[in-house]
Amino acid sequence: MVQFSTSEFRLTPHIDNLEVANSFAVTNAWAVPENVSVKSSVAHLAAYEGPSVNGKTSNDSNENKIKLLLYFTCLHNKMVVLANIVNGNFRYIMGATQAGAAGNLPVEKDLEVLVTAAEPDPACAQVAKKANGILACVSNSVASRTRAGIVLSAVCSQFSRGVFAIFGFYDKKSVNTITSFCGTLHVSFITPSFPTDGTHPFVIQMRPDLKGALLSLIEYYQWTKFAYLYDSDRGLSTLQAVLDSAAEKKWQVTAINVGNINNERKDETYRSLFQDLEVKKERRVILDCERDKVNDIVDQVITIGKHVKGYHYIIANLGFTDGDLSKIQFGGANVSGFQIVDYDDPLVSKFIQRWSTLEEKEYPGAHTSTIKYTSALTYDAVQVMTEAFRNLRKQRIEISRRGNAGDCLANPAVPWGHGVEIERALKQVQVEGLTGNIKFDQNGKRINFTINVMELKSTGPRKIGYWSEVDKMVVNPLDGPLGNESSGLENKTIIVTTILESPYVMMKKNHEMLEGNDRYEGYCVDLATEIAKHCGFKYKLTIVGDGKYGARDADTKIWNGMVGELVYGKADIAIAPLTITLVREEVIDFSKPFMSLGISIMIKKPQKSKPGVFSFLDPLAYEIWMCIVFAYIGVSVVLFLVSRFSPYEWHTEEFEDGRETQTNESTNEFGIFNSLWFSLGAFMQQGCDISPRSLSGRIVGGVWWFFTLIIISSYTANLAAFLTVERMVSPIESAEDLSKQTEIAYGTLDSGSTKEFFRRSKIAVFDKMWTYMKSAEPSVFVRTTAEGVARVRKSKGKYAYLLESTMNEYIEQRKPCDTMKVGGNLDSKGYGIATPKGSSLRTPVNLAVLKLSEQGVLDKLKNKWWYDKGECGAKDSGSKMTLNDAMRSKARLSITGSTGENGRVMTPEFPKAVHAVPYVSPGMGMNVSVTDFS
Is 754 labelled a binding residue? Predict the structure, then answer.
């Protein structure tokens, strides 16, 4: 095989300039020396950057740079490539012409290519075949007022040179000109462009008609309401077929032309278009566009977040794998389409293998494992022409045009006499190409073809079935959209993304000496081990790069954190304290919750209040004490009055005055002071020298005794608790307390579900808190939980941190034991294991979580990392006093005047009373401190 590089070409004029009204043309050519004869050669046309006008490179926006890489099947002698730039578009026309006096047989004719047709992808770029001949390249810069005039001039130029057939592309504006010209002059036109409706003689259409496959796919998905975005340059035949079916089946179709969108404002236009569709609840969209426009639309779909679960897109062209779908692959939206090039076909594999062996330096674009479907159609078109002329040679049909080149502008037009034979030969070709079985009907349209139906899975594009004219839609139930992806988890190494957050994932103290997963420890590390054990896969723990859980940027709509790594395919699963939320559920899948929790408030633990001089009053509220005082006074007054009015309370006293006995007047012992003394003695559970004699007085006294019995019993019970528990005065007790004040600042994690909860909440209290947080200066948001905890500890009680209750409880058990949780949870939610949308890991992981929950493994893991490894004692033990402190408190109360059983203070028997207290073990929840009082 001989390869021609750019150094082997020499500049030489090749053909005349095209004469087009109101246009200019500059012609340059490279030609291989005519004495070079090559067999089985592959000719290489290197990149040509141009064109130039008056010796200067044109910067006109309508003149783009050409970079062509052409490989063609050449029968004999020479191959010519003519490149025209027309309004920034490329056009290709191939003509088979006679090679001088080399004979009359068509196999001795040369193939010429005229670049005059607009096509998004230069389809001639990857065609390779055995060739004999000379390669030449000609570049022309043409500007014209009418595209049809340029096409007509270019085609006439080729026809006048004696072409046998023309290969090229057309668009909506040029199709009628080309088909009319070819039909009139009997020159066959082979094209990979979109199929046309009706009958066009001498037009061979390489591209299969997509209408039937598209309608079958719509019916398969049972769409009844959708939007149809189409490019008018591709024609309207497919749209018309969809609208006809819609009228028959009562579909609701919104048709939108995106072919004439201004390139300078296309991004803004696409965003506005999809936002309007969202208002109309249109989440099913058909994109009847070519690759470049599809890529532009997909970019804007991602930008505005319309690539998530709930959206479904059908790409209505034959190159599903040609576009860049990697960005939308992990978003969650369903994406379907069609593929004409079957990479499982041995012929395609052989072509790709040969293409990949070429030197990329000499053949830009080599070493790729794919081929654009337009390139494949071009390759097949050359193969069809080769086979047709080979068949004519075998039949020894004379089709010479020597001396009869013809004039396309003659009046009347004179058709070529042998054009019918060539058309018949082309239509009779039946070969296997890169696009499958190639066969034409009498109208020159493809028949008996097969189109693969594709869906975008989390693992990439995947064939779910096929469509053919005979079988119609055939879907493999295992690979279809309703089927499950094969799990195949055994012996797979799964990338597990997580975040450094105690106690879920922590670095071991000696992690520098360890490798891989052994460097980490924590709740989620143990959970990952259990999940992998149940699912049967190997895994690798990776720490999320930006240290965030995952939130979507309001401007760019791009996800960050662990959610972003799942969405954009950087990880297979996330095992971390990742909260299950609605916005996250739209782009990733969650397992059943492995831990339930809620948002809670963390504050700095206030200083413990020591018993004061009047601490003995604490067991009862001050209101009760006031009521007792008033009751005491009231009972004393009533007793005084009853004693005054009752005759039984009056008695006479006799005493001896010398030898005579004196009798005084009647007296009453229950004066006002004695009444007060009697009531006080009864209240203190002590005796008194006097007692009521009358029935009414005794009733009043009995009621008072019963009252004091209840009060003293209640006081004694509460006093025992106050002796063993130190009270802490918290400045806030709930979210309402936070929202009503501004002295204590409060905030959340800057990127997480807690912040999202307040941002979206419609509850008045939470909305008021969010308004404060987002406008607070300095910012109350923190980047990490560790930063938030540190801020609480350093704020001296002036900052409250809002976080998940599980983390709050864990930090409360860590030294220096100076934080605490106040109030109840603000909401109820759960942590879940996350996987990308449609991942095969979802089902086995979900079952594993349920099994671990039923076996109690999840509870054991929580106890292990929260309380068994706690540093502040058992839960709630921080508020308990030691026995020594309790006795000191009692002594302090006694010193201030409180009474014991006998009303004595610090009697000699007091140390004995201490030793008489029953033994209390640490296991009873009390921290015992032994002190010897003897």
Answer: yes
Q: Are 341 and 434 in contact (CB under 8 A)?
A: yes
| Residues 836/458, Cβ–Cβ less than 8 Å | yes
**455 labelled binding-site residue:** no
Structure tokens at 372: 């654009």
- What domains does the chain contain, in order, with CATH numbers? 1-208+346-445 (3.40.50.2300), 211-339+450-475 (3.40.50.2300), 491-596+837-879 (3.40.190.10), 599-610+727-827 (3.40.190.10), 619-724 (1.10.287), 884-924 (no CATH)
Q: Sign (positive/negative) of CA torsion 701, 707, 711, 712?
A: positive
429: its two tokens: 């070709």
Residue 393 known to bind ligand? no
In this predicted structure, what is the pLDDT of residue 792? 93
As a whole number of angstroms, the distance between CA 356 and CA 838 comes to 33
d(CA 349, CA 354): 9
Of 811, 770, 767, 772, which is closest to residue 788 (Cα–Cα)?
811
Sequential DSSP letters for 671-689: -HHHHHHHHHHHHTT---S
- Three-class SS state of 110: strand
State yes or no: 804 annotated in a binding site. Answer: yes
Token code pair at residue 397? 């049909």
pLDDT at res. 888 = 53
Residue 658 is predicted with a pLDDT of: 57
DSSP 841-872: THHHHHHHHHHHHHTTHHHHHHHIIIIIT-SS
Entry pTM: 0.52
Determine the pLDDT at residue 893: 47
CA distance 127 to 72: 5
**Omega prior to 593 cis, within 30 of 0:** no
> In Å, what is the CA distance from 665 to each residue of 245, 279, 540, 643, 689?
124, 104, 106, 16, 22
Residues of the chain with pLDDT under 70: 1-148, 233, 235, 365, 399-407, 409, 458, 477-492, 608-612, 652-665, 723-729, 874-934
220: left (phi over 0), alpha (psi -120 to 50) or beta: alpha
